[in-house]
Amino acid sequence: MDIDQPDEHVVVTPADPLPVDSGPGGWASVDKVVFGVAVALVVVICLLGVLFTDAVEEVAGSALTWVTTTFGWAFILAASAFVVFSLVLAFGRFGSIPIARAGEATEFSTLSWIAMMFSAGMGIGLMFFGVYEPVTHMASPPPFVDSVPGSADAAETAMAYTLFHWGLHPWAIYSVVGLALAYSTHRMGRGNLMSSPFQAIFGKERIEKRGWGRPIDILAILCTKFGSATSLGLGALQIAAGLSLLRTGEFEENPSAAAPVIIICILTVGVIISAASGVSRGIKWLSNTNVVLAAVLLVFVFVVGPTVFIMDLVPQSLGSYFSTLVPMSLQSAVFGGGDWLASWTIFYWAWWISWTPFVGTFIARISRGRTIREFVLGVILAPTGVSVIWFAVFGGAGINLQHNGVDIAGTGSEAAGFFAMLNQYPFFTGATLVVMVLTAVFFISGADAGSLVMGTLSSRGRTTPWTPLVIVWAILTGAVAAVLLFVGGLGALQTFTILASTPFVLIMLGLCVALYVDLRRDPLRRRRPGPVRSATVVPTEVPFAEPPTPQGPGQEGAPPPEPR
């Protein structure tokens, strides 16, 4: 088949309104098989973690070692491939295609769109690792670089690796999944399910009616569950560290899981309230609040911290990041360093991948009306730019203190790094309260968005799933986060994230193929210059239908060939 021609055998005549939210609502809208199997697996894992804690921890640790040593290369190559694929789509002949029907406008303003996807994408992680990661890499450089711990070279390397872990790669991972789902939902009229784009390859009959898509959706729910639980666990650890510091004036070296579990239970109530209010109210309001609070905190540290040092750090960090981007992207453990990669790069790629069902589905939900180029550049460049500023300010403040003899990297637990930095500046109590409130809001908005996505995945792709279903998923998300903290704290969160995301790498690669198959049939793609191939007149608006049947020369009614 000529890739420059629409597929004559694929006829797309979507209904108006979209069929994804048509039909009965309530419990009747729930896919009982997907919901039942997913809930059963989550409950079984939670019970095993509570009843057989030591055994689960041991088995999970062994499985993690096997996965990282056997398939670490797959995470590394796949993450880099997603960056290339996203940029090719943005700047290639598909970039001007709108993710919408003819005449459909965007649902949210650009500022709210960026705020919501950024809040859902990595809000809590920025709070947890904003200071801790740069100072840790500075105090203990990666094994692949020849830098003296604590030196200027080590600080430069620390910022390069931090931006590498939080820059183009994670957002490109989100981009490919979000774009495949957004195009499938808003332009093709399919359900907002992880399995829906595969209709381009296997057909609607197999995916929907024969149940081929259900295992994909169940796996997506499990990935979402453990990915979001990891973030909630990190947020609970950080809030607990802040409360302990305010209460005792000291950092706890080995904090227990009791306080974070209680915090999860309390904040889950907020998640339920937010989930009941919907996207346009709860999540949108919380996301905009996140942006305001984060901006206030960032400006505060920029002003009272080492302002000139931070300004100098921005271009230096960007230069180091881009100059070493390719080597960092392809760094493997073939000559050692496997433990470091498993704890940092592979964990991050697995964490982002485990979040793609959640973040990708959520971004698809809020991105109607954007062009492919606008979507890709908005999803990749805007959050990456914010990450650069965030780590330059907070990570730069931490690096400056570490360089001047304040041991930020060795203070208490990982969650205490942010507070250890703030403790060196005025208005510590107020700044600490802002950090905890911001983390709590990130917790609620992230869990709310994740619950909405799991509701969508378990209700045949409805963009507005049944509210009680969303609330059930919100409660289960808090339960999983609490169990993982009980099983093994931060280590358990990282372990289960990598294990859950490993098989999903194959799903993501399949989504790239399915998206390309859909895009090459789209009549609004930019045509390649070249000779006339047929007399078919390509439609210029959506929904597109079967192209006219070409007639041979000399046949009655045959139109004259027209140049394209």
TrEMBL record:
GO cellular component, one term: plasma membrane
Source organism superkingdom: Bacteria
Annotated transmembrane regions: 33-52, 72-92, 113-132, 163-184, 216-237, 257-279, 291-311, 346-363, 375-397, 425-445, 466-490, 496-517
Keyword flag Methyltransferase: no
Short name of one Pfam family: BCCT
This protein's UniProt keywords: Cell membrane, Membrane, Transmembrane, Transmembrane helix, Transport
Membrane topology qualifier: Multi-pass membrane protein
GO molecular function, one term: transmembrane transporter activity
Cellular compartment(s): Cell membrane
InterPro entries per the UniProt record, alphabetical: BCCT_CS (IPR018093), BCCT_transptr (IPR000060)
Region feature (Disordered): 528-564
Transmembrane helix listed as a keyword: yes
Family: Belongs to the BCCT transporter (TC 2.A.15) family.
Protein name in the entry: BCCT family transporter
Taxonomic lineage: Bacteria, Bacillati, Actinomycetota, Actinomycetes, Micrococcales
